[in-house]
Amino acid sequence: MTVQRETTTQPADSSPPLLPADGQVSRPMTLTVFTSAQPTRLTKVLTLADGKLQKTAAASMQMGRAQRVEVRDMAELAQLLDSLTEAQAVAWGVCAHEAVDVVPQDAEASTPGAIARTRQHFSFPPAPGVLMLDHDGAPGEQLDAASLRQRLIDACPALASAPMLWRPSVSAGVRAPDGSPLTGITRHRLYVPVTDASRIPEAGKALVALLWAAGHGWFEVGRAGQALERTLVDAAVWQPERLDFAAPPVLKDGLTREGVAPVIHGDGAAQFDLAQIVADADTLKRAAATKKAAREAVKGSCDSQRERWATEQAPQLAARRGITPEKAREVLRRASEHRVLMGDFVLTAQDGATVSVGTVLDAPDRWHNERFADPLDPDADRRVAVVNLKSGARPYLFSHRHGGVRFELMRQSSRVQVGRGMRIATTDAVLAVLKTRGELFDFGEGTVAYVSEGKARPVSPDWLLDHMGRVCDFYSVKLRSDGEGDAVREEIPEDAPSPVARAILAKHGDRGFHKLLAVTTAPTLRTDGSILDTPGHDAASGLLYYSEHPSPPRVPNAPSPAQALEALRFLWKPVRDFPVVDDVGRGVVLHGLLTAALRASLPTAPGIGLDAPAAGTGKTLLARCMGILATGTDPAILPPADTDEETRKRLFSALREGQRVVLWDNVREPLGCAALDSFLTASTFADRILGSSETASLPNRALFIATGNNLRLTSDTCRRVLLARLDAETEKPYTRDFSFDPAQMLAAHRQQYVVAALTIIRAYIAAGRPKMASGRTASFEVWDDLVRQPLCWLSQLAAQAGVPDLPTFADPVEAAARAFEQDPETTKHSALLEAWHAVFGSVQTTVATAIRRAETDDALGVALEEIAGQRGAINSRMLGRWIERMAGRIVGGKLFVRIGIRAGTLHWAVQFARKQPGENTPKPTKPATADADGPACGGKMVGLEGFVSDGLSTGLGAAELATSDTEAF
């Protein structure tokens, strides 16, 4: 093979490609080579008919083999692409396997060890890879390779420094048997070696915006009148599982193809940093304006073509479905203009049979995951579209034509009559329609929610009114005379009635909608430990499993301990490089991962606090990793609130917005207040709706995470937020370099990581649920059963198995004891108990007496000053209220006990705690008294005993549990 090399001069003001840190040798680039077994040909077939070139599209791979391949530079890549056979193609994403069998999605579950070629398995790695740019022509002109490359550089100057491999498209340069050209070299592929392939989708979007801003974008009018977006490069190719049919075509009928050698621009051994492809705010504005103008320019043509197409297709659809031609035209218009396929729309299945959308919706078990032709281009590949009827939300069809288009599948709108005196009947009729559709849910107390994009959001009257108008055809009836004395019934279209929308929202649980507690976008477990991995609403748990994937992953029912250890290794791999200081901290991090996978099912769960001595240690990144595992997307980062009232508002707003993760970043003050404490231990959370006098109560299944430098917790928050400390032990932790991005790793394979977490819990359940950690965590009992106990079991299991490459983990509840010790309130409380006892022993006394004695006792004076000092004096009222609040809480083995009122004054005593593990009530000693005033009143013991039910007063009694790490899960 001969490869031409074209040296390009790098502009003085351009940034150089990003090379590895050592500046010498780039890491190899990874890609995937597919070899098809069925069919045996993947490439295009080119034939000649009546002197014209005919192209048979590349075949769709059914079964075969995927092999991960590394290339060191562009010359090796060119050699690899030239060596592909007609049964081979490449993809620029990779999977977790070096080599693996590939089967269709519907055969994946029944073929052990095989995978489907889907986004679930393939991703762009955070490592060197290849960005492919595909040019299929421009309107009114044909560009040669040099012109195309120059236009790309004009739009994105950073590409001037990017090394590139140019190859002609497989159908370019074809000649007839007599040598005359049939196609020129006007279709091109450019391959750019990049340092971080995970940036390809983001960089591709930015490049498209830059091209639009530079005037290199346009719209084509589709056969059904749809506006099809185009630029100099195909925006649909940046999918990790998408095949690049780069092998030479099969030539027949005496056709030949020019032997054009690949061309390498720049340094073929270098790699480009995709972070240089940036579309700033001004660029995005120009792109949007240009796109809007281009769309407006073709609007008339689209409308005209849509009407022609609908008019041409309507008679056949009307005859087939038994509807009027006008209704058929409306069905076709909605498909083209709004991407909505109504029940009468007819689809073409992969076997050529036709079926209505209504028939598909009526038989989800039969048609789910089936493939169809594109709804608007049914004469093309009949496997290009797939139906998802079990996403947990509205059914849809996704077509991969034209860059990917999603069509919603809807039944025909129901007809509902309105009129004077019919409001109740109309309300009942609308409710019946809404219940049948199953799109709305009773969410909390009196709230109706709609699920979109995996989030449950409460609906407003205006939203419900609009929704009613979309799912119902409202009409009124008018009787008029026909002029001959007979009455004629006339139906008049009407708008959706707003009183009906308000009446439905006011019914408060009398609507008959499914009850919804939370939405999950990955498999989970119910509170009894049973598996929920089938998309849709689950009445037993109140959860809605929402999945865009047509074949979501399954959770093993009874995995072995060995599988649990393997799952732990896989789950821990993305977070293994975070500098967590000790076993307890790692236990807290593992709690964060397991709880993130299970939070939708847990009524309550402790929050996670991530603490470090300095900025840049990785707290926020680790918090993002947990958030991504919980929802699949980066969590919104919120600043902490300053007051209790503001805290309640922000937490309630997060629930109303459907947020499943609440991340408070960079907390500067001690964390804790009544609103936060309530939020963490309440399965529902109520507050007044902003801008309204109404109060709503919403289910609370949100994961709470807080980060801060030297983060401290206060009072009862100490047992509600478990703290892990990170310490990079370096002066500048923000300068550290990592070999991978853990957040990108988790986002790319989130479903597998969730399954790994659930595998650990299911293995614990299969082992008989052995109780490994002492006590049961008060307020978090279900979490204790499904997260804490499995975590401690697995830790001990790993230690016993002697797995050497996993760190050790301890009971995360140990973190609560530490937090109480560092709590400023606990410190003050401890100092006062010690000083008070040193002065009075166990003799009962009053607050006023203690204040007088503080004048002569320095230790007592300092302790009282810390708690109730005010303008150089001790505020007796403030001190009394503080002691009232702390009464019964054990610190350092001592507690305040309320004795009673004598001579109108309340008396207190400090006693030693005598509660033993397993005892349910405290047994304080009877205090000595200088002036007996009746029986002593024992106070309730509060502290760690309120957190773990068997009342261990020191360290919560959890044993050190060791674990280890494993490889890929």
UniProtKB/TrEMBL annotation:
Query: Residue ranges under compositional bias (Polar residues)?
Result: 1-13
* Domain of life, per lineage: Bacteria
Q: What is this protein called?
A: Uncharacterized protein
Chain residue ranges for the region called Disordered: 1-26
